[in-house]
């Protein structure tokens, strides 16, 4: 609690206003007090001068003014114009003082009404005494009530301002979080594009180098694949980098969905990997269905990352199998190879690949398990439920699909 003598911070303009108010009241009502009572009029002036500090020390000012009023009562002086300072001090403490001191001040004012009635109207008719008591009591209580109402209204306005400020802070924090999440997603997309494209280009470059002398046609084909892959990757990366520009608001408009690859784009992805020299068996089991945009993109990126890791680590002659199993409640994605990837020492920098796959799957409510297979090779298994978890996130549903994520899958077999 604030101490009774502790000053409140006050702007310079408010201090100047209080100085002018106290000066004006002192000159006008103080002069009238001196005109009424020559020497006792000084008590009226003494009740007006402390009003200079009425808002910085409201409790102390009321204590000082009421003390002078008691001294006036004890000295037998009549009521004078300077007594208006007592009402101003009561109003001020009810507005700016602590609640407990404000109520004490109201009690002091009520006691003053009784004292004034007994002293100044004690010889009057009882009806006149009651009338004056009610009139003075109504005046004191009215001044206090006006101040209390202003205090309540000020607190209400302050709460509204604080709530508005908090809402603005929450809005800015949510906007910053949304931007951060969007940039993280774009970074993951860029990693997928660049890593996959570079893996194919490296394999093709190595193959073309070895075939340059013995099979010029194979070398030309490898170079053509490198060029096509590089151009496609560069185009897709430019699109995603464009999303990072803050001034391109249309690119971030959630009402304009951006085309993303889905499971229907997997045959094209696998053909590109086959052109890079990797043997891939692609199989679809179960009853294919249309998938939500997020789920289709997640499945596509998991397959892409699995094939990229196979190109990097499986070694020459490795065979890869990609299986999509459309179960009753979830889609199972399996990417396996029989290469030497499991025996390669892990890098000190694990990169974003496996972490990205698990993050994607967790957003869709699924899981990813990756590790060496018994008997050699490596295996990635992702289980992705069709129904997204109801966690309050604004994720796409079955009624909001992006282009390229629908059906159109073969119903089974090896391709």
**Strand composition percent:** 5-15%
Low-pLDDT residue intervals, each spanning 5 or more residues: 1-6, 246-252, 342-351, 390-415
For the record, the count of structural domains works out to 2
Q: What is the residue-mean pLDDT, rounded to a whole number? A: 75
- N-end to C-end Cα span: 79 Å
Structural class of the helices, strands and pairings? alpha+beta
Taking Cα atoms only, what radius of gyration do you get, to the nearest Å? 42 Å
Order of adjacent strands in the largest pleated sheet: 1-2-3-5-4
Helix content bin = 55-70%
- How would the global form be characterised? rod-shaped
SSE topology string: HHHHHHHHEHEEHEE
Q: Sheet with the most strands?
A: 5 strands, mixed
Got a strand count?
5
- Tally of individual helices: 10
Quick tags:
415 residues; disordered C terminus; transmembrane helix; alpha+beta; 58% helix; 5-stranded mixed beta sheet; 2 domains; 10 helices; Heat Shock Protein 90
Q: Would you write up a description of this structure?
A:
It is a single chain. The protein has 415 residues and is an alpha+beta fold. It folds into 2 domains: 12-168, no CATH class; 264-342 and 350-415, Histidine kinase-like ATPase, C-terminal domain (Heat Shock Protein 90). Helix content is 58%, strand content 9%. The chain has 10 helices and 5 strands; from the N terminus they run ααααααααβαββαββ. Strand 2 (319-326) and strand 3 form a beta hairpin. The longest helix is centred in the middle third of the chain and has 89 residues, at 126-214. It is rod-shaped and about 130 Å long. Residues 16-153 form the DUF7134 domain. GO terms for molecular function: ATP binding; phosphorelay sensor kinase activity; protein dimerization activity. It catalyses: ATP + protein L-histidine = ADP + protein N-phospho-L-histidine. InterPro entries: DUF7134 (IPR055558), HATPase_C_sf (IPR036890), HATPase_dom (IPR003594), Sensor_HK_TwoCompSys (IPR050482), Sig_transdc_His_kin_sub3_dim/P (IPR011712).
